[in-house]
What we know:
The protein is of the alpha/beta class and 810 residues long.
Amino acid sequence: MSDFVLKSLDIKNFRSIRGKIHAPLDAKVVLLHGENGAGKTSILSAIELALTGKVQSLERADPSYEKQLLHRSATEGSVLLRTLSGISEQSFNATLNTTGAQSITALDDMRATFFRERAFLPQALLGQLLQIYQDAGHDATSPLAQFVAKLLGLDRLDALEAGLKPLGDVRNVRKNVEGWLTAENEKSRLDRLLSDQRKARETLNEQVLSVVDELASLCAELELSVEVREETLDEVATSLSDDKDADAFSQLTDQQRKLASIRREIEAAQTATGSSVGLITTGADEASKEFSRWEAKYGDRVRSLCSRVQAVLSNISFPSDPEQFAEAALVRLSIEQQHFSDRVTQARADIARHATAQDERDVALRQRSTIDEEVVLLSSSAGSLGSALSELTSFITDETCPVCDRNFTEISSDPLSAHVHDKVRRLSASAERLLTLGRTRSEVQVTIERLDRDIEAIAARSLGENDLANLDRQLAVIDVLINELNSILDVLQLGGRLRAAEVAAHRAVANAQTHHASLAAAHDTLNDFALSVHALGLGEGESFESAATRLEALLLAQATRFETRLSLRRKAADQIATIRSAIRQRLEVDARISADDWSWQSANQALERAQVLREQGNTIRSAVDKVRSAIIRREFNDRLNLVWRDLFVRLAPGEPFVPAFRIPESSTQKLQPKLITEHRDGGESGGTPGAMLSAGNLNTGALSLFIALHLSVPRDLPCLILDDPVQSMDDIHIAHFAALLRTLSKEHGRQVVIAVHDRQLFEYLKLELSPAFPEDSLLTLELSRGPRRDSVCISQRFSFKQETALHAVS
């Protein structure tokens, strides 16, 4: 945009400008004049608002300045700026209302920043410019740092330095480099994991060695010839799996059980043969005689009673033992007796209840008939008629009937109202009686229905006279049998005991004979068993007990020895399983160690490569810092300071102290320039410009700095807008300043817009900046306003005119 030119400005109700004004701006130099408060600063602020959307000087003074942009007498306003870029025209505008300003079209952020900082110098900023740069921070967003980047074209170096800056501190590297912290954490985790796994492997290896030593000791106790090592576990397991000891122990266990069985048989035979067979036989004969005598005395009576009981309880089978028969018969007869007694009692109760229920039903039927007869005599409409007459009484005011209009005194001496009230009472009593009879009849009907159901149920389950007589006869027979059984119960119990004694005696005789024969055979069996287990046979005179005890001790000793060997074999097998499990775990740990070690190597190599890159980045960063530092020192000291010095000396030729920037010789990664003053004759530098320069020369230093900054950067916007910059200047300063403006306009191609309030200065500058060649141009804008009228802007354009007077003289 090197051909960017301001063309015209239209303002409506903006700040001190009331109404509408049009200001042409399409000239090389635009001089703006007006009294204080006429609107000069408002016009320049309108240009800034249209181009950037903000008014920076007002924003510094009041953050809520937008509410004050609209003229206080208006409700809306606007700013429209037209520009030329070559042959194309572009408009920038903003609207105003009571709440603030809204930018419609403006420059992009980069050119808007350039305009605010390098093209427009507000009056309020002139006295603050040096202080702003003196107090500027050292970060990349400070005005001075942005200027340096723009001036020197260090954007790429700054970006490279900013991008490489986190590499200086590994904590920043962890935050900014994706995967660095993850790789470090992974490496630390793998370090701890590998350490734990190696410790676990050492523990497993020690466990394997320890258990192998224990297994070798067990194999030595078992007298196994195999060598016990980690590699020979299969051979050791094969030797331990030999079933000889197990088979021997199983055979020995069978022999112990067999000896115990033989011993129990001998003890049983000895116990059974403790009494002589002759005595047992004599006792059996005596028991048979006792039972025969009882049978001869009571047998017929008992058999007869049993037959009668069987006839009554034909569906039940009874035991043959007399005592058991009596007990079972009494239980069953008692049950039958209770059953028949209950049926007889129920039958007689039903007969009595049937007669009583019939009598009660007859009474209820007669009561229902009486109620029905009385209900027929009562009128069913008595209640309704009583209600109607009751309502009619309110219409009776004399002795004339309100229904038929007849005088009641003609038929009765009583009052009509008393007659009607009496009639109402009678009808009400009849209605109440009707309700009572209805409820009573319902209750009587329920009673009749209940009695009918009772009579039907009794008739359905009642027995006839023959059936009742048969029940009485059967009950009598059962009573007789129970009494008879109770009378001979002691006889039956005696017979049961005698029969049981006879049976037991005969059984004892048979068992004694059997055990006597078994005892003789047990001697031979025990002797054969002793020989089968490779022990001495039964000696002459040796008792069964001593022989069995001797054999049992022998077998127990052998069993203990084999049990110990089997226990050692099981323990050895468990240890082999433990060793194999530990070996498997060790192999798994080895596999994990190998995999994790590979991961650790990968993470470590990644970190090493990243560290190399970090060192290379730091090397590049150091090189960039050195190059950038050299460029900044060279450009500041040899270019900017030189331009600033030249401009300041031209504007203030009598001032011995010249302001300048001092750049430190050390690294400029953090830009910290310092404003100083240098003496023209050399020597040590002085203090800050504020301490060394007068007020006029201080403004001159700020103005020359602004123009130097403007000239030091590429010409993005070739316009220079100055708001009354000649405050506190004397005539010499003004003359030099006019010459400087003429140079900027005529030689450097800048469009200069300058506002002044002094009339003489305005006329002087109009003369000094008048067009000097055909393409040159000058516009003057004069602002005025009154207390009750709108602002007025009068423009006048001056073009180049060839001087002819000197030609005529020559």
